[in-house]
Amino acid sequence: MYARFGDIANSLRIVFSEKRNVAIFAVITLLMFILYAYLLSYSSIALLPVPALFGLSVAVIIVSFLLSALFSIVIVMNIYGVKRGVNTSTKLSIGSFLAAVLPSSMCCTALVPSLLALSGASISTVVGTTGIIQGPLATYEPLLLLLSGVLLFVAIYKSSVKLYCSCNVK
């Protein structure tokens, strides 16, 4: 069954009518914002020629806030669904989180060289391979972050549909 956008808004209204869910949303959004802002501050997005606030690019702040808010909505909807016995889109929310975190953590940090070194690769292999892995991630990072946002919207939609169908929200 497909839901209309009004039905999705009603599902969100019901989920966020509980003060506990609003508090969970606020805490998760803050924690995820800190994580995203830290990871994206080393990414190619931080290099955009835009003003900075508090040492972070405005683009990093906006992307971090949007992704953290969307991810938090998905988590709160999943918690609400579990509490009500409704199976929501947990796999989709995990996939969207990984799509957002992995490129930014692997792109311009020491994660890839460290993993290569821990796997027993020689120095020349680490130096030669790191750029091959990190280059495409840096190039396509904005597209991967956009994909993550789309996946989060789809997760919100699917969770709303399942909650709407199970609760008969009208």
Keywords:
76% helix, 170 residues, mainly alpha, 2% strand
Alpha carbon gap, first and last residue: 14 Å
Shape: elongated
Number of individual domains? 1
Order of helices and strands: HHEEHHHHH
Kindly state the number of beta strands.
2
The structure class reads mainly alpha
Fraction of residues in β-strands: under 5%
- Largest sheet data: 2 strands, antiparallel
Strand order of the largest sheet: 1-2
Give the % helix.
over 70%
Rg value: 19 Å
Low-confidence stretches: none
- Average pLDDT figure: 77
Work out the helix count: 7
Account of the 3D structure:
This protein is mainly alpha-helical. The protein has one domain. It is built from 7 helices and 2 strands, in the order H-H-E-E-H-H-H-H-H. The protein has a two-stranded antiparallel ribbon with strand order 1-2. Strand 1 (52-53) and strand 2 form a beta hairpin. Helix 3 (58-84) packs parallel to helix 7. The chain is elongated and about 55 Å long.
Question: What's the helix and strand layout?
Answer:
Elements: H1 5-15, H2 19-40, E1 52-53, E2 56-57, H3 58-84, H4 90-107, H5 111-118, H6 123-139, H7 141-167
Antiparallel strand pairs: 1-2
Helix pairs in contact: 1-7, 2-3, 3-4, 3-7, 4-6, 4-7, 5-6
How would you summarize what this structure contains?
The protein has helices at residues 5-15, 19-40, 58-84, 90-107, 111-118, 123-139, 141-167, and strands at 52-53, 56-57.
